[in-house]
## 1
Amino acid sequence: MISFFRKVRQKLLTQNKVTRYLAYAIGEIFLVVIGILIALQVNNWNESRKESAREREQLIYALENIKTDSLSLDSIMSRTDKILAVHRDLVLLSENKIPLQSIGNLDLIRASEPNILTIKKNNSNLPNEVKDQELKKLLLDHYLTIEWLENTILKHNDIIEGVVRPFMAEKQLLNFGKQLNTDRLKFDLVNDEKFFEEFKNEELRQILFESGVKLRIMRTNAERVAEKNENLKRAINAYLNNR
């Protein structure tokens, strides 16, 4: 093809047909420019297709994390509800409204909460990768809510591990040997008789007050994250189905 164009140019010059040569030269330049533009367009299309494929892959992976987080959040709320129930029982006991026998498993009040959410940890840069602005806003909002939950979990765990457990050990409220019990329903770690005797004192009640406050906030934040988790899952599925 190149040799063909070269022969045409030489022929026009030889015949001294300058006007036709100029027209031909302009046409050749035009064809070259068109060829470059087409090549760029094809390259841009290929890059766009690769980006879309990469975005889809990331969102599918994020959906798997969201499903895992949904189960984790259910567990967090379920465990928190059980611990809060014991705290409520202790409040009623302090008001002489229920007997000792009505109190739930005291082992729960020394339980910390593992932070096991995955969507933000495994997809930290996802808001910068997605193209849809509404989806980007949902992701950023969800990540912010997760940070609030993680913060309350850490604060609650600090009280449990830094105050509640050391206090119980110092006051000898634990049943040594029971830590090896394999019954997950009730390890019987806390000595009920010693605990209720110590519960008559204000110091333990104040410690449980702080723990209960953090638990209530953690439960509220977990519920918010769970709601946003479901909203994000629906939004991602709708976005992928429309692509």
## 2
Amino acid sequence: MSSASERQARRVQRYYRWLDGISFYRERRAAGEAVHPVHRALADPEGGPPSPLVIHRLMLEGVTLPEAPRVLDAGCGYGATMLDLAPRLGGDWTGLTLSPEQAARGNAALARAGLAERVRVQVQSYDAPPAGPFDLIYGIESLIHSADPAATLTGLARQLSPGGHLLVVDDMPEPGLPPEPAERLAQFKRYWRCPVAPDRAGWITALRASGLDLVGERDLNPLLQVRGMAQVAPRLAEVRNRSWLARLLGLGVRAEAEIGGLLLESLQTEGWVHYRLLVARKPA
């Protein structure tokens, strides 16, 4: 792992330590959830209610897995995706997070579900992944934190089995943004600790450079539950005004996370950022 990747891993680890420590994600945990998915809800194309679990079904459409797959979740948060999919798909699952709090809560939830023998959360960077081969590797809203996405994908692709799939689900800005949305994007990247945030073409180029074939993609923006700038502006102003001193002192991580999320909503509503799924396959 490069020195830049190591520095970024420490930066992201501090970020989530703050958010986990002040219960930012616990507040967003729905009643009855073992652990909350740290990714956004989508409208269900099949008519069900909007849910963070919808992406789990959509990302696996057309992906063929063996009877007992070996799976790597590259940036698993509290392990909610594995908790949802592993009971249905079987196999052996490993989730990676930089947050000890997320790992502890995720492993406790997996143990309560009776999955601990074959599903686990490890405190480990996806830039130094465990040895494969894996039949499926995915990153949901996690790979955007990479300091070098091309190197990250190359490292993950090495651990894929022949015929295995690598899925990227993330926010991808449009190229050539005008100055005003470009400034909002820069603020989002800074507040969410996303130094590069490639566009669609950048991700596809990196996937192909890692030896993978792009076999599917989907623009998920039509399924997002987001608001435009006019709707988020009052809350944005409130959080900025209330937190300016904390942010100046480096103590405003919670406020930064919320500001970044509000800015991202506005960019998605206006079409400057698209939430996309890319499906790549390693040649057999």
## 3
Amino acid sequence: MGFALPNGSHVYLASEYADAVPFTDITNAENAVITVASATGLQEDDIVHITSGWSGISDVVAKITAVDGTSVTLGNIDTTNVNKYPAGSGAGSIRVVSEWTELPQITEVANAGGDQNTTQIQFLSDDRQRNLNTFKAASSQTYTIAHDSSLPVYPLLDRLDENGDTVAAYMYIPKAKENRYWSATVSFNKIPATAVNEVETVTVALQLQSPAMTFYKIADDGSTPGS
């Protein structure tokens, strides 16, 4: 059993990517292995944004945990379900995140969506209905931040809001010794909320595009977060 407070956490958005690296094959494994033409420029602990023919991992953000020749291992990317991930159809590309920009001065985080939707069925012989799971609602996160138009993240938020690109994001939670990665589109409301005797704030809404978050425990060595 384990738990931790989020106090002291930091949130980052990808602000620069390296060129996309195509992969021609991907294995069915607990830690999927992709095959690239050349692994030059790829190294262990790189964070990559995945595009794949397998929708279950497309737009997932992962960490490279090993590079061996042209084989690159994506840690915690479980593709063992061969019905969901049929062999031969998962080819795609990865992009290394080469620069992160922090989303600073966060005062509040609100999660929405992700609820399980259901449909009901009742047979003639039944005296009660049954719920069947159908789909899960789309998820979003809204970050309230103290307004400061000189923050380096403002131009990035403006650009992402305007072009609608899906971008990698991550949260560093020092008390949990964990990094959490996902991808999202960004909506930035830069009009400050103003009230007497209150700090002005703006909101950043992240509409999650990755099917799931990926979680990686980090070494407790005092190193700077970012991988």
## 4
Amino acid sequence: MSRRQVKQGIIDVVLLPNISWVLLLLIPITFIGFFPSYYSTLKAPLIIHIHGALMVLWLATAIIQPWLIKLHKIKWHKIIGRLSYLLMPFILLVGYLLLQYGYRRVLGGDLVAPPEYYPDGASAMTKAADFVVIGSVYFIWLLVYYVLGIVFRRKTQAHATFMLAATMTILGPSGDRFIGHLCDALGWKFNAVAQNFTFGIAFFLFIILLISHYRRKLPLWPTVTVLVLHLMGVFLFYKMPFHPAWNSLAKMLFSVP
């Protein structure tokens, strides 16, 4: 790394300039996104409260880590990184239980979409499997990106790239709700553009990062890996709903004997 790059700051070199500031936007997006359904009343089952608290901790961790690098607080960065080894298993466990809870809700007859959304004759199991598709995709993304970030923790660029991808999984659930509220406020229809907005934001962020890595002559494989995994997840998001294979897999994963 050149002297100029060291002066600029390693986080701005291996990721993007001012990415630490950009990640701060996740705070208002998350708060506004979940305000009507959660923060405005705080009335929810216990599993949702636990999930919410853990995700706030993950959001705080994900935002503060690049700032610690930017401010040359490497010791604290490593300490918080090791603490995430304890936090992430709980996030994943509670995330799985939340998916199970959602599956059982719909299986029990809760209405989560208008009747015309489903194919004719769709069973309760089919509706329940569809309900957990998006959550399952983000669950897998978070798990894979975080594990890759830990595996390659000694390779700074790869570690930072995978951890950025893990952080961006926060944007999905909160960003989709944020866009939905914006469409409602402006009287716009929540169309395909709005539905794919957060997918597109993540994709173009890593395309820009790929170009940046290419120009800086940094290895491209971490960013390419994220882009491939992202596209695979989007593909599954569109192919899993109402598919017999997913219906069976969801039943196996989320139904309780």
